[in-house]
Structure formats: C-alpha cells, structure tokens
Amino acid sequence: MLTWAVDVLLGVALAALEVTALVAFWFWGSVKLWAAGGKPVPGAAVRLWLVLTAGPAGLALAAFTAFRAGLPVTGVSQSLVAAALCGVLLLGLGTEFSRWAARRFGRS
C-alpha cells in the first residue's frame, strides 16, 4: 500500500513539475516577444525545439528508470507526458514547415 502511495504521489508530482516548467518556459518566451514589440525574437524557435526534443527524451529515460524501480504509475505518467510533448513538437514542426514552404514558394 505504501509503495502504491509513493508511486502515485511521485507520478503526480513529476507530471506537475514538468507542466509547470513548460508553462514557465512559454510564459518567458511570451514576455520576450512582448518586450520585442511583437517582432520575432532571434533563436526563439530553436530554443522551443530544443526544449520539446530534450524533454521527451528525458521523460523516456525517467519512465524507463521508474519501471525498472518498480514504480509503474510513475512510469506510465512520464510516458504519457512524453507522448504529449512529442505531439506538441510534431504540431509545431508542421506549422513551421508550412510557414517555410509558404515563404520558399512565394505564397502568403
């Protein structure tokens, strides 16, 4: 019973920490955009892709470690957050690709 309580609390705490960190990152990026007067901030896209690729890789490692330690709920929660971050990454890459294609081929 204690193991399950620790497992669930650890899973919830880690997921909440990761979501909080991502929200803080996006908020800070929005503040930078606001400070720049709405103009593009140099390197913003690169920082976003770095966070959205390093994040799921770290979460996959955390999920693997949790499963190996006998904490299945924590492992599943980390896997689900990693999958959600991968989904956001794919949506963002699709948007950036469509913008690039529009600029490249002269369409607005």
Q: Can you offer a commentary on this structure?
A:
This protein is an all-alpha fold. The protein has one domain. The mean pLDDT is 86. The protein is elongated. The chain contains three helices and no strands. The protein starts with a helix and ends with a helix. The relative contact order is 0.13.
Q: What does the largest sheet look like?
A: none
Secondary structure tally, helices: 3
Q: Give me the Rg, rounded.
A: 18 Å
Count of discrete domains: 1
Q: Characterize the overall form.
A: elongated
Task: Compute the separation of the termini in Å.
Answer: 59 Å
Given as residue ranges, the uncertain stretches (5+ residues, pLDDT < 50) are: none
Mean pLDDT: 86
Strand percentage lies at under 5%
**Which class of secondary structure composition applies to the elements?**
mainly alpha
Helix content: over 70%
Total strand segments: 0
SSE arrangement, N to C: HHH
